Amino acid sequence: MHHPRILLVEDTDSVREVLSRQLEVLGGIVTALPDGDHVKRELDQTRYDLVIADLHLPNCSGFDIARFAHAKRCKVVLLSGDTIAASRDDLLTAQFDRILTKPVTLQTLKDLLIEQGLIEKISVHLKNNQLANPNAVINMQALQEQMGLLDEVAFKMLARFPVMMRPLADHMADAAKHRDMKQLVETAHSLKGAAYSAGALTLGDMAKRTQQLAEDNMIDQTLIEALLAEFARVETEINDMCKPKISIS
Question: Does 10 lie in the same domain as 111?
Answer without folding.
Answer: yes
